[in-house]
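Renewal narrative, Specific Aim 1. Our central claim is that a sequence can be written position by position from structural information alone. The example that follows is taken directly from our test logs and has not been curated for this report. It begins with the structure tokens describing the chain, in the order in which they were read.
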């Protein structure tokens, strides 16, 4: 079904795993096996790191323009092959083809953006305050990096790490999610094709994430770990990074509030909610997790949202007209089912959806719940599915308190036409990203990342490259 190599990509070559093992990648729309991919073990991981270490000095010494031009070529070729990438993403992850094509455009853009940033990495030169010495700073690549990526955006979650790392002169080992390794293998093949040298990018799919990742992090030649995934796993990796004091970037879970004030353009807020909630079937750390709506507009908002969500076509992502694909696996369906059941038990009302569709495939219908008590579990954890729980408020103070009542702090959405309120919200909402009158914050030119339990580090923007360089200071006499 898939047309990219199904092997490990190490030192510019496709290889079987050392012990010859493979693991199955399933189609979430029906549970069938899409591919059997080589299953890296610790020996393979060590080979991949060895290759990255061996390639590091040469890649760091490659002219920034040359690194940038390779990234630019990758961007062009990914765009040219949008349909091919979109099909692989849709097959292994489940999202509709149109959304998968959107991910291809978004994911490719990190290569274009960082192609442009590769030639803008610079330090500074200044006079010390006492005038007696000169201070010079320069930026150096941090060294070999490990990337651990999730299944929800199989291309973009990788490209936004690989792009800046390569631009900065770092070599990388990528461990894609076990549910969706095919897209990353396809990307590795494309990077090889455009001329990225052997060893600069290595990809090691595995069914033993914990074993492979911890063995790599035990090696002090690895200098940086960038992770996107759950907060629980992020904490494990931060602890593991302590032994070798590897630098870490952590893009972890979210629990985004979507706040609609009484002065909002409610129709626009509903349109924004469709994007913030339903993009990727709600399987995004940026997904609107909780809707906090002023009591005066709550009925209107809930009715319009339920009408639009209830009218969406659910089905296999590759079928025409499908807007909502399957969730990633049966655990995801069970988790969403449990959250909805508990909310209803706590007093919530189901306006649309509310019951899993049943197999084959891991489908759950778009669901809107009203009268959800603030303390319901669904308001506290990451839903990662197409469910919109709505609670109400009456004062701005209450709304901000509700929005911030979470351990997470990735993104907060707010809808208001009041400029003074907007200015207050920018300072009071505890999130690394704030969307005002928009349901989409992700942008390769912007610094993506969170605060609190959503992690630290930024991906994209000018800030993205900083994650991959060390600042070196040179003291010089004034002369
Ligand atoms: P999710 O629950 O959404 O799958 P995870 O945080 O479990 O999110 O997975 C994100 C990535 O982390 C995947 O690539 C997965 O294989 C990897 N992973 C899971 N557990 C561990 C672990 N103990 N150590 C290292 N990586 C892990």
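The sequence written for that structure reads:
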């Amino acid at each position: 079904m898939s047309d990219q190599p199904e092997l490990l990509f190490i030192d510019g070559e496709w290889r079987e795993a050392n012990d010859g093992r493979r693991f199955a990648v399933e189609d979430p729309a029906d549970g069938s096996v899409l591919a059997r991919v080589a299953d890296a073990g610790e020996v393979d991981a060590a080979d991949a790191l060895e290759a990255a270490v061996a390639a590091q000095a040469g890649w760091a010494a490659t002219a920034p323009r040359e690194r940038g031009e390779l990234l630019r070529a990758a961007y062009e070729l990914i765009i040219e092959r949008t349909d091919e990438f979109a099909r692989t993403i849709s097959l292994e992850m489940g999202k509709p083809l149109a959304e998968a094509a959107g991910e291809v455009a978004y994911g490719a853009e990190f290569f274009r953006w960082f192609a442009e940033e590769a030639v803008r990495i610079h330090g500074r030169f200044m006079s010390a305050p006492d005038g007696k010495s000169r201070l010079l700073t320069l930026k150096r690549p941090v060294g070999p990096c490990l990337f651990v990526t999730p299944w929800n955006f199989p291309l973009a979650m990788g490209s936004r790490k690989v792009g800046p790392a390569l631009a900065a002169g770092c070599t990388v080992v990528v461990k894609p999610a076990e549910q969706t390794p095919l897209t990353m293998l396809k990307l590795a093949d494309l990077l090889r094709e455009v001329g990225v040298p052997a060893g600069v990018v290595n990809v090691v799919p595995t069914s033993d994430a914990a074993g492979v990742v911890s063995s790599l992090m035990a090696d002090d030649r690895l200098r940086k770990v960038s992770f996107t995934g759950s907060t629980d796993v992020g904490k494990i990796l931060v602890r593991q990074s302590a032994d070798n004091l590897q630098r870490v970037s952590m893009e972890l879970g979210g629990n985004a509030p979507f706040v609609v004030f009484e002065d909002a353009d409610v129709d626009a807020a509903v349109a924004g909610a469709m994007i913030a909630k339903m993009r990727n079937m709600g399987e995004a750390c940026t997904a609107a997790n909780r809707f906090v709506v002023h009591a005066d507009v709550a009925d209107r908002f809930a009715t319009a949202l339920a009408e639009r969500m209830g009218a969406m076509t659910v089905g296999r992502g590759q079928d025409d007209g499908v807007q909502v694909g399957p969730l990633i696996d049966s655990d995801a369906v069970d988790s969403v089912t449990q959250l909805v059941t508990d909310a209803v038990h706590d007093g919530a009302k189901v306006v649309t959806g509310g019951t899993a569709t049943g197999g084959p495939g891991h489908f759950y219908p778009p669901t809107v719940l009203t009268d959800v008590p603030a303390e319901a579990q669904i308001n506290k954890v990451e839903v990662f599915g197409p469910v919109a729980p709505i609670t109400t408020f009456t004062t701005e103070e209450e709304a901000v308190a509700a929005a911030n009542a979470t351990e997470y702090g990735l993104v907060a959405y707010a809808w208001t036409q009041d400029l003074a309120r907007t200015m207050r919200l920018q300072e009071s909402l505890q999130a690394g990203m704030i969307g005002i009158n928009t349901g989409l914050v992700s942008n390769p030119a912007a610094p993506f990342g969170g605060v609190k339990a959503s992690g630290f580090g930024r991906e994209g923007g000018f800030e993205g490259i900083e994650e991959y360089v060390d600042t070196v200071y040179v003291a010089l006499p004034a002369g």
